[in-house]
Amino acid sequence: xxxxxxxxxxxxxxxxxxxxxxxxxxxxxxxxxxxxxxxxxxxxxxxxxxxxxxxxxxxxxxxxxxxxxxxxxxxxxxxxxxxxxxxxxxxxxxxxxxxxxxxxxxxxxxxxxxxxxxxx
Amino acid sequence: xxxxxxxxxxxxxxxxxxxxxxxxxxxxxxxxxxxxxxxxxxxxxxxxxxxxxxxxxxxxxxxxxxxxxxxxxxxxxxxxxxxxxxxxxxxxxxxxxxxxxxxxxxxxxxxxxxxxxxxxxxxxxxxxxxxxxxxxxxxxxxxxxxxxxxxxxxxxxxxxxxxxxxxxxxxxxxxxxxxxxxxxxxxxxx
Lengths: 120, 190
What we know:
The structure holds two protein chains of two kinds.
Chain A: H1 4-10, H2 40-49, H3 66-78, H4 89-95, E1 99-100
Chain B: E1 15-20, H1 31-46, E2 52-55, E3 64-69, E4 85-89, E5 96-100, E6 104-106, E7 117-119, H2 120-132, H3 159-169, H4 177-189
Parallel strand pairs in B: 1-2, 1-3, 3-5, 6-7
Antiparallel strand pairs in B: 4-5
Helix pairs in contact in B: 1-2
């Protein structure tokens, strides 16, 4: 298990590059459903940006609510992570990893379900 | 593998031109270094599908236009500084491929020592997948998986990438699935 500090350290370049906001998400490790953690809304914005929360929502709360659990499960399924619905170390590590800016949730060829559209 | 809604793909030609922006670049890599990496990235895709990519000096009129941009750069998808979002591209037949100029892009990870260095070839190969019509894959080993760690290199297409691209464009007549799978197995074993 990777601790939040060591995960954050992975992305502290040590050469003056400290402006990587997502690494702060490491502090949400093991936050559970029903909890309220200041800044959780930023994590929801992240999931919204990449297609896991409805794009119509923009006013996110800091509550770890059912919709957030559903988004996490979808995220974990799509990225081949253990599906726990929790902010476990695998999920946090994935979230803070550098990535492509394109949305993840688009029509999947292996499924008949059209999950979400992408504007690109 | 996955596609964008409507499965858009390039239909105007089997030969696509690409060009690097003469203005939006990074100053610590030479033009020839970047061009060499980009050429290799395109060749990986053209080896599996019947699409050729030709470099052009005419940036504005090229099918695929590649540039390094910083922060807000006019397409509504601002870059965010070091790490975070590394790059983005647009689905067919838009042709824009944007790299975050704030990253420390590396063409040789043995020479580039920064802990936050990002392998240019890996990211360009991934973004070309988007340009061709592939969305993100759930297969961690695939080039089209959405994330890439600093200093990591992932340039070899995997069967998931190949199947996706060939579903859109068909197979390159010279592509040999058997030898590809043997090569992939040796990578997996290693």
